[in-house]
Amino acid sequence: MSRIVYVNGEYLPEEKAKISVFDRGFLFSDGVYEVISVLNGKLIDTRGHMLRLNRSLGELDMAAPCSAVEIESIVKKLVAENSVEQGLVYLQITRGAADRDFFYPENPSPTLVMFTQSKNLLDDPNAEQGIDVITVPDLRWQRRDIKSVGLLYPCMAKMEAKMAGAKDAWMLDADGYVTEGTSNNAWIITQEGTIVTRQLSNDILHGITRKAVMALAGENDFSVEQRPFTPAEAYEAAEAFVTSATTFVMPVVKIDAAAIGNGLPGEMTGKLREIYIDMALRTE
Ligand code: PMP
């Protein structure tokens, strides 16, 4: 059955949905996006995603085609139209179609596109087994705080991981510290039980799940430090994990050649995953 997708004011069967070849999202990656997960037909942390969307737009001086409230109601309608019980909504805003010119157009007419993907997020075999990651240099641009659609380097890094038989890659800055995963925030738990993740800056995406997990860790009296860490420190960690909207808290059991802890998903990681999912399922 064909999905219903949203394109610039219309709800269309996916085969009918079209975007101009002059769209700046296509020509210049001049666009931003959000991915919101859906559990039991309900959107998780829509507010956080809308705030970040607004911030990404602001940083790029990009106009939205409608208000955040309207975007939110389109998202909800699309989830209902497609009967998504579990999965995600992808939404993208670009600066729209214009004659090809590096300068932003004076009267842009932004493009808004959304589609859903049904997917079992809760029973993810990766969460049972944990994933392995390799480390690669972080060769992305330096405004990683903007959730732009320019994702070619993360694609290249994921392919490098796949070629190496791993599931994902953690990227390293010029000083050798981990920035984040290709599509997630990276965390370790030290042998002393301190949860460590890199502090917010332009070096990483300000993950919505990162923020929620940080708050939940605080409420549960876990100690959290926001600072950079190296792969060498990570190899010696008791546990490691990544966070993102669609994977929640995902255990990492191997980094490069090093098994983390006993090579199985960590206990605290499991607890964080559980409390995050509990909180998400209570979403109204
Ligand atoms: N970092 C990067 C580079 C990402 O692409 C993502 C996922 N979009 C994240 C972190 C996690 O962010 P969130 O928790 O908001 O999904």
TrEMBL record:
Is Transferase among the key words of this record?
yes
Enumerate the Pfam families for this protein.
Aminotran_4
Q: A single GO CC term, please?
A: cytosol
Cofactor section: pyridoxal 5'-phosphate
Q: Reaction catalysed by this chain?
A: L-leucine + 2-oxoglutarate = 4-methyl-2-oxopentanoate + L-glutamate; L-valine + 2-oxoglutarate = 3-methyl-2-oxobutanoate + L-glutamate; 4-amino-4-deoxychorismate = 4-aminobenzoate + pyruvate + H(+); L-isoleucine + 2-oxoglutarate = (S)-3-methyl-2-oxopentanoate + L-glutamate
Assigned protein family: Belongs to the class-IV pyridoxal-phosphate-dependent aminotransferase family.
Q: What is this protein called?
A: Aminodeoxychorismate lyase
